[in-house]
Specification:
The chain is 50% helix and 11% strand. The protein is mainly alpha-helical and 127 residues long. A two-stranded parallel sheet has the order 1-2. A two-stranded parallel ribbon has the order 3-4. Helix 1 runs antiparallel to helix 2.
């Protein structure tokens, strides 16, 4: 088995820029360039996109690295898990008093969630 090196890289600006709708802006590109530098220098072959915001940047990451890389999209895994959970327990889940709490509630999230769930929802801010 070959030696494996794990690099942990926090990328806090990516979530902030994505939440503000500026992922594909110059600021987003600069953040990707900065954060991908260590991966590019080491020719990393696999990157785990550990935040649900990061898949928005997949193409920008590929473009910045300039070589073939395996991007592991954890957001997709979480979405599939939740979809299965809701489908398997739909009747039980719908009869419970569910509440949604967000650190930064937004109208965009509310619209998307209501479309996906097929019902009106209320979002509570975390204070």
């Amino acid at each position: 088995m070959p030696n494996i090196e794990v690099i942990n890289k926090a990328c806090p600006m990516l979530a902030t820029v994505a939440e503000e709708g500026r992922a594909k802006s110059e600021e987003g590109r600069k953040a990707i360039k900065e954060y991908m530098q260590v991966f590019k220098e080491k020719q990393v072959t696999d990157i785990v996109l550990g935040c649900t915001h990061y898949p928005i940047y997949e193409q920008m990451i590929r473009d910045e690295l300039g070589y073939e890389v395996n991007l592991i999209n954890t957001g997709m895994a979480v979405a599939k898990y939740l979809k299965n959970l809701f489908e398997e327990e739909k009747n039980e889940a719908m009869s419970r008093d569910e509440k949604i709490f967000l650190t930064k509630p937004s109208q965009d999230f509310k619209k998307i969630a209501e479309t996906m769930l097929g019902e009106e929802i209320e979002i509570f801010p975390i204070k």
